[in-house]
Design a protein that fits this description.
The chain is α+β, with helices and mostly antiparallel strands and 125 residues long. It is built from 4 helices and 6 strands, in the order H-H-E-E-E-E-E-H-E-H. The chain has a 4-stranded mixed beta sheet. A two-stranded antiparallel sheet has the order 2-3.
């Protein structure tokens, strides 16, 4: 489910050039937390190439959900069960190996649930 641009237009700390179009409600909730605290953020500003074919075309890439420019930190949000995040963890390891200067943090379902509880948010399932 993608948000309409008008729904996302109210974000004050958003630093992207186009209104964010979230893939799911968990991403929107994280954006709201960042925005609430005035933490500048961008939504999916960059993809990291993980693999190319023989002709040089990108065959695998990783696009983190958020970038926090003041912290120089990318954030990926997943609501998958812990047992299903192996593939995502592998991609993060590859990003760290191929782009050692890039800082990226994965927020798991349990992290999001803790934030939601702390800030009294209704969490998307």
């Amino acid at each position: 489910m993608r948000d309409s641009p008008t729904e996302s237009a109210a974000f004050q700390a958003y630093r992207g050039s186009q209104p964010p179009r979230f893939v799911n409600a968990a991403e929107r909730e994280c954006a709201q937390i960042l925005d609430w605290y005035g933490i500048p953020w961008e939504y999916e500003p960059r993809s990291f190439v993980l693999e190319r074919d023989a002709e040089g075309r990108v065959t695998r890439a990783f696009t983190p959900d958020f970038f926090l420019p003041e912290q120089n930190l990318y954030i990926e949000v997943t609501m998958m069960k812990q047992s299903l995040v192996t593939r995502k963890n592998r991609k993060l390891r590859e990003v760290r190996e191929l782009y050692p200067e890039v800082r990226v943090k994965l927020f798991y379902r349990r992290d999001i649930e803790r934030l939601a509880q702390r800030y009294r948010l209704r969490i998307a399932s």
